[in-house]
Amino acid sequence: MSDPTDPAAFGGPVDGTPYRATEAISYGWRKFKAGPSTLLVPMIVVLVVLVVVGLIFAFVAGGGFFGTKSCETGNIGGQATVDCGQSFWRQLLGAGLGAGLISLVAQIMLAGIYRGALRVIDGEGFSLGELFEGYNKMQVVFAAIFIALATAIATVLCYLPGVLIAFFTSYTLFFIVDQQLEAAEAIQASVKMVWHNFGHALLFLILAAICVAIGFIVLIVGLLVAVPVVVFGAAYTYRRLEGLPVGP
Q: What percent helix, strand, coil does the chain show, rounded to 5?
């Protein structure tokens, strides 16, 4: 059995040119143009699931604990005032739980998308029926739960720590679906890769955010282009920063 960490196990030569985040986006665009429908249907399914989960959480939270509002009365300049709303800490707690839940579902659903992008990069086919094939689902669940909990807790601690955790663990699923690492090993590998390539990873994140923002401006049609381009770009970034080969 070949070593999954050996570049030769992936086939093809390793690209010796310096990594550039702009080239990652360009590569994603070329791969999308070559087969627009490859990731389109699976991506639509994932996006619909995430939207539904977000709406359900908003509905449940809005009608339950986080929807309860308290009012405080006061007197300013002889005028009675009433200030109604949720407390700051209650809003933070709600944001943390919401971020954790969406992160959990997103990690589980996106694992198949990432595996599909890697299959396309390797010159193989991919379809909706293969969304949950070719990787250890249990390790994905373990990693998703850990990242979701860490993101939720860190988000409660005034947002920024949650953003940092999401950033450093953003390539965890690639290590699981591509190199078959266990959850803890994959998280460590993602943090290590991002830490050692912080500038490249950050620049790609910024460019990816710009692409998604542009896609959002032109509504659904734009997102259906931007998101697959970013996913292909992320797969390219993972392979290049790990010193692994990518398809032409």
A: 70, 5, 25
pLDDT tens digits for range 146-204 = 887 887 777 777 677 778 888 999 999 999 999 999 999 999 999 999 999 999 999 99
Residue among 105, 107, 212 nearest 170 (CA)? 107
* CA contacts within 13 A on the Cβ side of 222: 10
Amino acid at site 20: R
Indicate the average pLDDT of the chain: 80
Task: Tell me how far apart the terminal alpha carbons of the chain are, to the nearest angstrom.
Answer: 26
Q: What is the pLDDT of residues 220-240, one digit of tens each?
A: 778 888 989 999 999 999 999
- What DSSP element (H or E) covers 190? helix 183-196
- 235, 174 in Cβ contact below 8 A? yes
Closest CA to 175 of 121, 232, 233, 135: 135
Rounded to whole angstroms, the Cα distance separating 16 from 183 reads 29
Spatial distance between the Cα atoms of 225 and 20, rounded to a whole number of angstroms: 21
**Cα–Cα distance list, 240 to 45, 87, 124, 154, 183 (Å):** 28, 46, 19, 30, 21
C-alpha to C-alpha distance for 56 and 111, rounded to whole angstroms: 22
